[in-house]
Amino acid sequence: PSPSPSPTISVVTSGRRTGLHGEEVGFEYVVDYHPVDGTPASDVVVTDSSCGNVNYVSGDENNDELLDEDELWTFECSVVVGPHLEGEGGGILHDVGVVGNDVSGGLVEGEDTWYMLFDHVAGLFSVDIFGPEQSLPGAELQYVYVVQYVATDGSGGNVTSLTDSGCAPVEYVEGDVNGNGFVDLEEVWLYECNTTAGSPGEEVHVVRLAGNDYDGASVRVAEDIMTTLVVSGGSMLTVEFVGPTTVRHGDNVTFVYRVTNTGGAVTDVSLSTSIACLNLQRDGDGKLADGESVDFLCNYLVPALHRELGEPLVHVLEAEAVGTGNSPVRGWGVGITEVVHDTGVLDIGVTAPSRSLVGSVASVEYVVTYASLDDSPAYEVSVADAGCTPVHFVGGDTNGDGLLDTDESWVYQCALLVVPNATTNVATLSGSTVDGSPLAPADANYTVYGSESALQVEFVGPTEARHGENVTFEYVVRYVTTGSGLGVRNVTVVDEAVGPGGAQFVGGDVNGDGLLDVGEEWSYISEQMLLSALHAESCPVVSSRAFDDSSTVSDSFHRTTGYSEDPFSNDICYEGEDATPSNTMFMYKL
What we know:
5-stranded antiparallel β-sheet, elongated, mainly beta
């Protein structure tokens, strides 16, 4: 015999195909149901592996909460594209699923996929040439080129060519700290070229740098120019950066610069540097014969905080002296000092429902921070949770540079399918210093218990109040279950912000049986809370709790500080057994 036909449900995803880092992008999901006998589907839920909260928008034309055969239901979700990470791949895969129940209670499922490519901001290259402004014919000359790239999303740029009309070949020396082939934020790449001075006259160096952004698209060409004057019978100064080549924030160091004379004798040798020396001293009388050198000592206090210093330290050195016939003699040099950063501490906190309905999708939220003594940020930050994937970035990178700064809190989320009994997961935060050194990972455990029934309490508002104002807070309580559907009695709501007394029942017992039944919404209020007439620097976030007379509450209270326009209702905790207590967190803005 032929198999019996089965009902089918499908979901079609649409949205952006590309997204910039830090940009909020939206997706739409259209659900269609094809039953065998014309009956509708119930309990329709859409999930997206890379977008945490998929919400119903429209399509239920008769408002019966059942997906009929002739209806198309639309869902929506938005997500913030996370910070740029090295090795992030080409984009984000969205595994989309839809589930529902047919009239007999059987599960119907459908799936779809959507792929969104990362799109990167086109940054700007800069190139600066440094070399001798004056030379003798036949002298060996060295030119140094300093290359940087800045994109607002923290992505790097790729150098495709660097040429100098007066010197070839121009060759890479150093600067690619992480070895990825891109000039990244906070990297300075050095190139050099060696040549021999020609006949007396001006030698012009026109420097051109061409490159691509992280996606391979060409960016604007960067240019610089300088001239070397070749003179006969005179003198030439060369300047060498001796060191040190590495320092730490807060160090008191002495940089050494060496000036060497070639040719006729010079006097009154002086040196200027781009570094803000506390004092700059010359070790000698400033008179140099042919082949002689003199050292300059620069005492420098490295700023204690990363934000106070452009890194690495680039020493641009210019020497000047008096030559034969009181003619000026000039020389040049450049040096790099890398700043070694503090190995800070990563921290991660997880907010998840302690109990939720089996088969429901629970929102897990991860808040990550970083602390370092020198205020330097963390690089290549990522959150992994083997029990909930994928974890996606929500927000917090306030300056959009892809670095977790010490004054930032980054938020990630994951959609967890709740299964029966207790599930314990471990979330791990990893990253590195801006120098590329791995940081010790941070872990956080959380447990979600899958239950057949639970109470849900929603804080209605208000979400804003003035100091000294009397306020009436409103709450709605619902009973949800996958079991028999029998109601619960003696439901109480307690708001920790108002006080130990319970909130007042207002209404919602439709059939008047004293039981909070499935489908009913009971309303409560806490009246006349007198907020302090004094302004507070921060406002408490408190929890409301709903419970029946057969349950107890042990750890349902959470607190943080801040201001918010909207209720914060992501943290819903359930305790006990059967119809279990719940709490939801929310903010009052004063």
